[in-house]
User: Fold this.
Amino acid sequence: MASTTAHKLAKSQKEISVSEFFEKNRQILGFDSPVKSLIMGIKEGVDNSLDACEEAQILPDIVVSIDRVDQKEYRVMIEDNGPGIVSTSMPNVFGRLLYGSRFHAVRQSRGQQGIGISATIMFGQITTGKAATARSKVEGAEAAKEIDIIIDTKKNAPVILREDFVPWNEKAHGTRVEFYMNGRYVTGKQSVIEYLRQTAIVNPHATLTFIDPDGKRFIFGRATEQMPPLAKEIKPHPDGIELGTLMNMIKVTKEKSLVKFLQNDFNRISERVAKEICNASGLPETTKPSNLSLDSSKQLLEGISKVKIMAPQVDCLSPIGESLIRKGLKHVLADVKPEFYAPPVSREPKVHTGNPFLVEVGIVYGGDLPSDQQVQILRFANRVPLLYQQGACVVTKAIENTDWRRYGLEQRGGSGIPFGPAIILVHVASTKIPFTSEAKEAIASVPIIQEEISLALKACGRSLKTHLNKKERKTKTRSKFEIVQVIIPLMAEKTAKIVGKPVPDLRGTLTKIMNVVWIDDSVTYDKGRHRVKVLVYNYTPKQQRFRIHTVLPKGSLDMASCNLKPLEIKEEEKVTWELPRIPSTAMYEVSFDLKGMDPEAFSETEVFVSGINPVDVMGADPLPGDWDLQGVNFTEVEAPAVVQAAEDDEEEPDYDESGEDLNDEQ
Amino acid sequence: MASTTAHKLAKSQKEISVSEFFEKNRQILGFDSPVKSLIMGIKEGVDNSLDACEEAQILPDIVVSIDRVDQKEYRVMIEDNGPGIVSTSMPNVFGRLLYGSRFHAVRQSRGQQGIGISATIMFGQITTGKAATARSKVEGAEAAKEIDIIIDTKKNAPVILREDFVPWNEKAHGTRVEFYMNGRYVTGKQSVIEYLRQTAIVNPHATLTFIDPDGKRFIFGRATEQMPPLAKEIKPHPDGIELGTLMNMIKVTKEKSLVKFLQNDFNRISERVAKEICNASGLPETTKPSNLSLDSSKQLLEGISKVKIMAPQVDCLSPIGESLIRKGLKHVLADVKPEFYAPPVSREPKVHTGNPFLVEVGIVYGGDLPSDQQVQILRFANRVPLLYQQGACVVTKAIENTDWRRYGLEQRGGSGIPFGPAIILVHVASTKIPFTSEAKEAIASVPIIQEEISLALKACGRSLKTHLNKKERKTKTRSKFEIVQVIIPLMAEKTAKIVGKPVPDLRGTLTKIMNVVWIDDSVTYDKGRHRVKVLVYNYTPKQQRFRIHTVLPKGSLDMASCNLKPLEIKEEEKVTWELPRIPSTAMYEVSFDLKGMDPEAFSETEVFVSGINPVDVMGADPLPGDWDLQGVNFTEVEAPAVVQAAEDDEEEPDYDESGEDLNDEQ
Assistant:
């Protein structure tokens, strides 16, 4: 029995072509529901167009259209103004899975697998039985090449049904692909138009035109004429490289010595570092790479891990950038008017298995965002929005494993997706995004990537918490002040009326009750400038003299607009003011303008105090210890005493703290 | 610029071998962290062993061992007593990705892709640089064939470094694979031992031995000598078949007429149905399949969708079964002593894109399960536990989209993973599991599969709710009784003491206050028998006479054990008793045994009443309308009046409802 089974099995064992595999496992490519299939197909086409334009440094002009053929079938067309595809390459690009130009390169790009567009054509063919049509023209060519193509899935090979040269005069160069596909066209949160909208947000240099099945035209116009910097192709970074990869590199290197191999075949290894590695590995610098055995390769890997190697340059990556993240979020959120945009956090590049990557995070809070639901998560990988498989993504895992209660969001048990009126945006850029599947919908849980996302989330979370703390403190302080300032005068008035005496001046009394310096700051925006006002109320019985400090975006302060000249500005951003004496019951205002920033780039100041007992202050924290104050001496600067309430009050009454009696002035 | 880019791109475009692809995208295969890699490798080996044994109908005896080589490197060995692999097939089975025997078959099996074991060997080779060793012996062979093998990833082809015939006398047949791999060995929720434990749960016919890196030996012994029925290989089922697949089948069929093609190349199409389909498609029965154009193929697909076709036979699937699900859960839960096992739900087979599948669900509640955490989810696909990617799985989605508040679990907003002391087990069995990636960690969100899981969850959820309702009602009833029965007598005693009179008999008074028939049932298990007791307390001022009903597992009732003979038993499971007259303040007990069931197969009865006004009853619902009572007449059966409290009380005092006075007896 066992023997016959073995022979029976042997007979049925055979090779599976990669297209055959994906034909039967199309869900792995993301073609697992009619709605998703249509989005996937368009995504593969648009990603390719954006990549091609970026490589040729052409501002992309991409048109997507969907026609309804019948209840289930659609005709999809994607056309770009990219560099075009050389005609001999067209059959393999569109008709063979696992074929492409970006797979072997260490550089950030959208497509990296060589599967997407041919898989789309295959899925179209499986569901409709129809061929796809591809047309392409390279610069200087007289005509475009056009082919009708299907895929022989048993062989994973293109079959060309028709080929022609056709005039395409309106295009100097470009590519168009048309395919038929069963699917379902919908609008909403997971839809073609939402994919295009999110794509436009992170690719502001592109113009995307979409013609929906009803012929309605949507244009996402370009917001900038500036191309994103071309991400540079680099050598593999030695961090986290695997033994097998190293041995493959040793096998194919042209270098004749170990030190040259290290220096020339890797990113970020200088001659000095290469020598250090040889030393740390106990291998002579002159060793011929081809002579390295398994054991010496292991030694070399050991050696690499012992030597400190610089992080990769950022120029192999193309981050979205803080300003664009803000703009992008603002764009998404035009209607909901959030109360707070946390300053986006962009981490330094790190390396996973030899591939540089970096993480960017932005958080938006409040406004009309729903407060009784889970926060909304916007995920991007190499500037491509990820609409599906949120639950499988390392981004989600990092969010779930962050204790958001610390940052002011609601979260049961301190894990899971938090609840609250917030949107969290996370972008991972890498020369190689480790997707969980060929559908490129979720990023795998690579520990170092998760860690980087967590750190960025926490940094952004701290800004959120500062904002929420401040908001809460302000609310509390304000309500206390309001009560005291409304009720006490009312009582005084009533009492005065009853006893038939005039209403006393209550300032001293109120001061005694409050016994606090209250600092209230606000930011407004008008005509290209942010106006910051810091109001300092002295509700203590004594005069006060101290410093206030704040951190401003680098170089934004307009010195001319300051009503009080700063005592010191450090690192272009840390600003200190020495306040004049503020008499009891008086108020002092510090105000200034910030220039050259987008409206959403700055929304609140954080004010610190020094030279005063912090327990006497409400509305500002004491200056943190790491704010280096050594350069500042408490000099007796004579600042103008622009004191409002106490203008006529040269000798301020220093109320003593003992008496129970009402104010004796008046 | 554009033209040079096109040519530059053309030059760099090349074919990518499937091994090269996975070498760079190992996370897609599940090798994305050291802990997971080790589990994945073992899983691929054990899955293959279980499949091979099942095909040869051999009771599996599988040994897994892990040795620590150094801090990062492990040596893994997996050995089985399966049918063995014919020696000529060995290089491709272990050294080529996308090669296998199960890919083209429509039958339930663990491995379906032809990737797993060769990918494991490749990953081992990448991380350690070392070859794998495979040994196999088929029945009747004198010696085993042993090879040392690596994979040429550029070519996706095996490279044999050594081959030998070696004696393997202790095995009549079997296969052993050994590989080295970088990884990290841990214990806990996601670990090798947990994977093996869950595998043992759903494969009780297997003996799994595990030797951990410290040499500690764990044995999961077989619980049954009975092989699971061999899942039959079937033809594709016509439901949901795609046009492309249909056209491929048309291309390769040997049949000469459409009607024969339909009848012989598909599952569940009889001659009659085949004729109906031809008719519905408007195509002559005699059409030669090879003559079908694209349009007629579409017509045929239309026709298929119009004709009702039987669901696939269940015998191409190998469900776990209700009893095993119960046992499995009990096994997992030995320590936590859950209060309730909802009867597992097994759905009828359905079809997704031509592949039959079925869903099984079990729920466990209470005991020491933590009540302040999310419920635990146990996912299985074709009897393989899924430990990772819970968030990406259709099982999780179905659970999240079920409103568990209806079934007594806590869930914010009625969606998301619910909270509570519960475990939800879901098994999906199919001739083709649509995994989200080659790592086979999560099932894709195919709508019909999600729907089936939802229905099963709801059915199981209803049992849970019934249990929780009953528990709550019992608790409430009990506490009301306790209060009345403790406080009133205390008051009476006190009052009697004060007024210097004897304590009155309060039964009548209590009865007046309660004015209810209380039904309290319980189930205990001892020595192979379940003992059910139904206690009926008459706390009304009148005598009562009515029927009680319950539903028991088919054929389980031991008639000899009944203290009161049932009035009627319908469908072997619906049992009705006619109770004797129960005097006011008296109690009557109905008790009986159930036999032949596992202890965990039955944990509570649901009792219904008829012949009494339901508002007078606590602890039992009125008989539902769909319980057909037409056969039962209210006959005046003279049942023995085994009445306890009222034994000496022939003429029961029918307390009137008007008086305010204390009981006048005594």
In short: The CA atoms of residues 277 and 307 of chain B lie 6 Å apart.
